[in-house]
Structures
1.
Amino acid sequence: VGDNINNNLSFATNLRVSPIPGITIGGSYMLNSKHNEDEIDDEDNLLREDANLFAGISKIALGNFNLLAQYLTKTVSYEAEKEDITTTAISLVPTYKLNNTLDIVTRYDIYNPNTDIDDNGYNTIMAGLNYYLIKDAKNKPKLFVQANYQIKQFQDDDKDNENELMVQLRWIFSEKISAK
């Protein structure tokens, strides 16, 4: 309180449009100004002037099939002695609902942490299942198991691919509480 007020505020905006049922397009933009130098001991953040972030999305829902596509980019600007860094990511997530309790989920990601450097990113391929154990009265999942296998393929030939088998139990317990 008092002296601990960050006067370097961030600006964010978000827009989503559904021109026809089943199709959504949109994006988000954020300008994050320099942080309060007194509160940050990380030298990299002290040199940062600002960060521009953009996320573009599109979603297509046709019957039991959904496709979510995302493009993300972040450019961090620094003081004169350090070059700006731009990071990009593209994600495609097709899903197919087999029945009321089981979905097939796949994902393909392309990630580049610095667009000025060759072969420093990776691609990720994932395939899995969502199994819904409990749903609420509105048919929204409350308890479900997610299982997937993913391969992370590095662009740098000197790095080995990473393979992961993941299983998680998700419990969504938040509810809207209304006073009567």
2.
Amino acid sequence: VPNNSIDAIIVSSDWLNEYKRVGEKKFRVELQDLFEKLKGHRVIVYSQAASLSVDIRRYVHKLQIVAMEKPESLEVGADNLTAVNTALREETSKFSFEFIDITQLFSTGDKCVVAKDGVFYFWDKIHLTLAGSVLVAEVTQSLLSGIHSEQPRRGPDKPAENRNPLGDAVMVRNLDGTIR
């Protein structure tokens, strides 16, 4: 961290499972408790990218065995995240924190784009691949730098050969599931 200061704290989780486990009222109380501890910092809260109906690694492996090839483009069913995202957005705004709905980068309705033009965005049911993380990093970088672009693009994000896709932002998932 340059100059021992924090530019922003990014909060992300498997929100849907917690929402289902404790219910909306307790979920909101838990968010308020967490956000209270983060007061005084710039906080960015991510929605959950998706909650897919299948584990993508296993699904693609089975498709490869049957079809003898890996699909170039793939959409699968996904859980509806509207209720949990609404709770996140409302609680985030109460603390004047920023909210990024990354669901819209990948999902439309009950379908989620997990691969397009040979680029896979998901590793399993909820975790993003490097290509998926790069899409989220681009949105985050524009927010952090104050550049507000139009809706982030969905589609092939193969980095140019001479460009390091990690040069703009890096998000690391710790073994306990947290991101730093």
